[in-house]
Amino acid sequence: MTERILFFDIDGTMLSTGGAGQQAMELALAEEFQIPLPFENIPTAGRTDRGIENDIFGRYGIPLTDQNRQRFMRAYLERLPDCLRELPGGLLPGVRELLQQLTERTDVHLSLLTGNYAEGAWMKLQHFGIDQYFGSGGGGYGDHHAERNDVAHLAIRNVSEVLQRSVSGAEAVVIGDTPADIRCARAIEARAIAVATGVYSADQLRPHAPDHLFCDLSDTTVVVERLLG
Question: Cβ distance 141 to 7 under 8 Å?
Answer without folding.
Answer: no
